[in-house]
Amino acid sequence: MEQTTTAAASPAAAPGGRWIERYFRVRDRGSSLRTEVLAGIATFLASMYIIVVNPAILSDAGIPFSAALSATVLISFMSSLAMGLYARNPILVAPGMGMNALFTYTLVLGAGLSWEVALGCVFWSGVLFAVLAMFNVRQAIIEAIPASLRYAITCGIGLFITFIGLKNAGFIVGSEATLVTLGNFDASLVTFFIGLMATAIMVVLRFNGALILGIALTTLLSAPMGRLWGEEVMVEWSGLAAWPDFSAVMQVDIWGALKVAYLPFIFVMLFTNFFDALSCFMALSESADLKDKDGNPRNLKRSMTVDAFASMIAAPLGTSAAQTFIESGAGVAQGGRTGLVAVTIALLFLPFLFLSPLLSLVPGIATAPALVLVGLFMLAPVAKIDWARAEEAFPAFLAIILMPLTYSITLGIAFGFLSFVLIKLFTGRMEAIRPAMWVSAALSVLMLVTTH
Q1: Which residues, at least 6 apart from 339, have a Cβ–Cβ distance to it below 8 Å?
Q2: What is the CA radius of gyration of the chain?
Q3: In the chain, where the domains are located
Q4: Does the N-terminal or the C-terminal CB of the chain have fewer CB atoms within 10 Å?
Q5: Where are any strands of DSSP class E within 236-308?
Q6: How far apart are the two ends of the chain, measured CA to CA in Å?
Q7: Count of beta carbons in the 10 Å neighbourhood of residue 376
Q8: What is the rounded distance in angstroms from the CA atom of residue 329 to the CA atom of residue 32?
Q9: Mean pLDDT by 10 residues, the chain (452 residues)
C-alpha cells in the first residue's frame, strides 16, 4: 500500500511521466526524471558559452553576429533534440570549438574562400560523414590514423584556439622585431587579464557554468573600464530582445565548394569532426557506463548519424559544423543517463534565439578568457602521446606546434600526416601505413601545392 501511494505521488505516475520513463528507459538506466532534468541543466551551463563565442568567431569570417547567433541556437536545439529523441543519449550537439576556428581562420581568412563557399565545404564534409556513419566503417578509419596523431590534432587545435583568444584580447600583438610580443597594458588588456584569472579560479573551484560566468563578469567589467581608463567604449547597449536574424540561412554555396583545390579542406573537416565525435562517445561511455551488451558505446551508430546530420544542416543554417560536446560530461557526472538530458538541453537553448541584441553586448575581450581555457581543456590528450618513441612523437609534435605558428589547423594536420608517412617509408616500416593514411598524405600534398 505504501509503495502504491509513493508511486502515485511521484512525477512519473502521471500519464505523461510514465510515457517519458518508458520511452527513455529512465529507471532501467538507474536514473529519475528529476536527475535527468538537472543533468541537462548542468550540461547547458557548462556549454552555453558557445552561444556567444561561436558567433564572435564566425563574425570574423564575415557572417553577421546576429545571424551566426540565430544559426548557433537553431542547430544546437535541433541536433540536441535529435540526439535525445533518436539516439537517446545524454549528449549535447552544438557548433564545435575547433571547427569554427578551422572555418574562419583557415578556410576564409587563410585560404581566401568566401564564407558561403566555406559553408559549402562544411556541407560536403557532413555528407561524407553521413556516408561513413551509414556504412559503419569507423573501425577501418580508426585503425588507419595513429592514435598519436589523433591526440596531437586535438592538442594543436587547443593551442590554436588559445592563441586566437590571446590575440583577440590584445594580449599578444604583432612585432617587427620578434614576430609577436606582449600588448600594451591599456583598459582592454587589464580587463581581459582580470576576467581570465577570475574564470580560471572558478574553473579550479569547479563552478557550474564557469566559462559563461567568466564571460558575463568580463563584460560587466568592460563597461566602466573603457570609460574610466581612457576613452575606449567596449560595451554599447542596443536592446534586450529582437526577432531572430535568418539572413545567413540558405546562403551556402554547395556547388562552389566542389573544386579539387577544396577537397583537402573538406577532408580535414570530416576527419576532425568524425574523430571528435567518436572520441567523445567513447570517453562518455567509459565514464558513465553508457555501453551496449557488447561493451561498445550505446547507440553509437545512431549517435554518429545524428552528428553527421547536424554537420549537414549547420551549413544551410549559416554556421560551422556542429559536433558532440565533451562538456556533456557535466550532465553525466550529475547522474544523467538517457536522451532526456539532451532534450532538456535543446529546450534551454531555444529562448536565446530572441536575445541577440543582449548577447551582442559581449565584447571580444569577454569571450577571450573562454577561448584560452577551452585550449587548456583540449590539451589533456597530450599525456597520451608516446613521447619516448620518436617515430610517433615527431609527427605529433609537428602537428601540434605548426597549427598556432602557421595560423592554420589544416597545415598542422597536413605536415603531421606527411611526416608520419615519410618516416615510416624511409625507416622500413611501410606496413604501418594503412590505405587511409596514403590518401591523407596525398590530399595533404594536393592542398600544399594548390594553396601554397
Answers
A1: 24, 83, 84, 85, 87, 88, 89, 90
A2: 22
A3: 29-240+247-380
A4: N
A5: none
A6: 77
A7: 14
A8: 18
A9: 40 61 83 87 85 91 93 95 92 88 90 94 91 71 76 86 88 88 85 93 87 87 67 60 88 92 86 75 67 71 87 93 82 83 94 81 82 86 91 93 86 89 90 80 77 62
